[in-house]
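COURSE: Structural Biology Practicum
ASSIGNMENT: Worksheet 4, Part C
STUDENT ID: 0417
INSTRUCTIONS: Below are two proteins. For each, the amino acid sequence is given first, followed by its structure token string. Answer the questions at the end about the second protein only.

PROTEIN I
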Amino acid sequence: MGSGKSKALTRKGLIKFVENKNAAKLFVQEYEDLINEKEEGTFSASIAAGYFGDCQNENEGLYFDHNRVVLQEENGSHAYINASYIDGYDFQDAYITTKTPLSRMAVRNFWRMVWEHQSETIVMLDTRKTNEKIHRIPYCHPKEGFTLRYGQLKVTTSKLHLDHKNFELRKLIVTHEGGGSLYVNHFLYNNWRKDHILPRTSDFLDFIRMVSLYSHTTVTPVTRKGYKSPMIVHCRDGLERSIVFCAIDISILQIRKTGKIDLYSNVLKLRRDVGI
């Protein structure tokens, strides 16, 4: 690792690297190498501007066209959503990263995206403490047994688990007025209190492991559906916290399957995918 070059590390090599007295300096060097990398791609600001007013700020931080999520046509028109596909370690488009929806239109399009992709896992990485606008138009009800309706979809909070100090788990049922239901696990991490300050490492890793466990044990298997539904990860800007989550999740899976980790290359690819 270091000097802007990819270098995979074994488990022992990773431990040795972290324990190196110069580890902090080496990480800073890698960070500088990453931010100096140039992204290439185009984005359609004119498309976004057609759907959102300046007051929404939904078109800030646009994703590249080549991996931007495009919703299906409805009533003769396409709705815009500021969301991007992200490749996982062994699956293409394993994640969708997006901004936390803060307007009624954005919430409606958010649930359309969930339904169209049949996504069974949602990871939320900001709270009222970090994003005060969240409570104004919630996209799911905070209490059990209550239902919210957005367009053709009804979202019911069927079960709420609050037995973990660092996150909440909601069991949601999404029902389409045309027929069909989708069961969704909604994870809210509530211990990332300040931007630019990472949460406690052990707590965040426990959270990622729990999300992974549910994704492997409760989500409809690929063999049955014939495809893998993307996990939806969102935060205030749709980038910083979401990318941290994806980078760690991908790297954990990489080291489990290969015995090696290449964090630099993983982060570099993520940055190129979303244009940061």
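PROTEIN II
(use this one for the questions)
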Amino acid sequence: MKTFRILGTGCARCRALAQNVESAARQLGLAFQIVWVTDVEQILAYEVYMTPALVVDDRVAVVGLVPDVEELKKILSAAGAP
């Protein structure tokens, strides 16, 4: 099972990223969970200084952007998803 962490405060852009990640993962047929990281100290532990950010299995994959579903499918595939 893949773990996708959304780093951010829950703002509209953070929610949009989470929604796009969920859509992309479902289209790829992945078993996944989405975990929200809203604590600033935890976000900084990933060396992320701009949100929203996406962490795939403990690797920062997106910072400060909200990629569309097609772009996220490429990102998730490159991160080891089928």
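ANSWER KEY EXCERPT:
Q1: The first helix runs from residue 12 to 28.
Q2: The chain has three helices and four strands.
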